[in-house]
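Re: your question about Peptidase C39-like domain-containing protein

S., sorry for the slow reply, the queue was backed up all week. Below is exactly what I fed in.
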Amino acid sequence: MKNSKQHYKLYKSGKFIFTVMVTAFVTMAMGVSSQNILADTLTESTQGETKVQSSQSISSQSDSSYTSSRSASETADQSKMEQSTPATVTKDNDATLSSATKLPDDQVSSSNVQATTPDAQTAPVKAYQGQTSSSATSNVTGTYHDIQPEYKSTENKIPAATQPQKKTVTIPEVNSKNGFITENGQTKYYQNGNMVTGEKHIDNRWYNFGTDGVQSKGLTQLAHKTVYYDNNTGQMHYGYLKQNQTYMFFDLFDGHAITGLRHYRDGLEYYGQDLKQVRNNYIKTNNTYYYLGANGDAVKGVRHYDKGLEYYGQDYKQVRNAYAKTGNTYYYLSADGDAVKGVRHYDKGLEYYGQDYKQVRNTYAKTGNTYYYLSANGDAVKGVRHYDKGLEYYGQDYKQVRNTYAKTGNTYYYLSANGDAVKGFRKYSKIGLEYYGSDYKQYRNRYFNDHNMNSYHVNHAGNVDNVTLRHNWYSQLNEGYPEGCEATALQIALSNKNKYYSLPKIYNATGYGYHKTPSTGFYGNPKGVGSAKTETVFASKLASSMKKFDNNIVDITGASVNDVISELLNGNPIVTWGDYYWQLGRAFHVMTIVGYNNNQFLISDPYANSKREYYISTNNWHYVNHNNYALGWKTPSAMNVVVRG
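Result:
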């Protein structure tokens, strides 16, 4: 009986061991099936967004599971099973299965499954009944039902397998993506299955991907700059970019689009707020102007345009309210940048710029009927200007004085029609005469002699009020021509011109005799003692007869007082017809006027044996000269002959 009991125990023991082995096998099979179900379910989740959490890698989990399984098996073989509290397998939030026994490495699935076991629990082997969860994450819940063997013996129990700590298995996404991928005609970039957004440095090139992952191309506004990505490659662009006829420039360092001024080795450019390079137009930055040419380069130096001229400095800035010099040429640029043309007044003077906008220097400038002279520094002259040929005068308004007087201090000048200061005599009216010295200064309150040694006096106003012509006195009596006053008076006048003709020569020229009339020659005998009729020759015949010798002897019959004064002021003596002692009704007589002083004529009378000269009033002269009468002849009024030359 004892042996029978022992056999029964062996039988029960063998059956229990067999049961444990079968249960372990079923559990392993159900575990694999459960993992496959979970992996298939996870594959259907959103691509690229699946997040897998693990406490350890798959490899470490497999190793740990395998070790735990071996330990449990070995313990079962060496001791008896011990009865323990049943365990329940449930689904964690991340598809976690609780199991009494870990699977070996070769039975762990690569799906995204998290298998979790309760810490430090012992459990009898359980049969698996699996079901699939309908949750959004497709987790799987499996339940084990306890298998309770019906034996009461407590001998040779096998200790329960020691349960391992809770482990998490992370399984990579199936078909993970990497690199550039075209989806629906749009390029995206994935890294380890994750879609890249924002800026990305790939193979030493910069790219950008929008929030939707689509690769950026063309102009793109980033957080702090605008850049350009190539339309073909999507790579960030650096340097110049031409689109249609428009240029842009992207920084060579970080690729940002340039706006405003861009300095480079050969010059300067400007890019507007629209990023476009400015060409053939002005730009203003702060208070500075630039002009960009047809190639986009800022202009430097002179710029001609249809309305004028501008100037840009070496720094490309437009010059305003200042001078600009190029070579030996000066320009002045106004407040709007236009070069000045014509007269320019400034606080210290006046300048003049020609039609070519160049500043005039060392020469004249004319505007309308006004003349200016611009000096070596471009400033208009004011006051006296000496030059090699004379003197000029420019008023306080810088205008050249012409046909008028100019005064500086107590000195007077007279500027002629061409602006030159007068030198010598200036006849300003018939009887108005002034004199300017070799220094162009007007004479006042003084005597002086001219080149012919005629003597003059000028009053405080600069007018000549006294003239005495140089002359030699001749006597008709001493020459034996008692009736020859006409020819002798002519000799006196001719002496002023350093000329001398003998009396016989003169009378032979006129012809004489009693067959003559005063209009055709000398009536009578110039050497005689007279006759009932006046023996004389009229002015017209005397002048015409002398033309064979001298064309400067001119008949001025009918001359007025002012006519005579005018000739005297000009240095020309007058042969005049009157009466003896300038008393009307006395003997008919011809004399010479050789001077003038304060409304008086200086008479040189040839009818004397010694020099006879005196003053008579101009009124007296006028009365007698215009009213005297030659007996027996129709006498012309106011007969006079002037000797010029």
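Residues 465 and 487 are 30 Å apart (CA to CA). Residues 1-20, 25-162 have pLDDT under 50 and may be disordered.

Happy to talk it through on Thursday.
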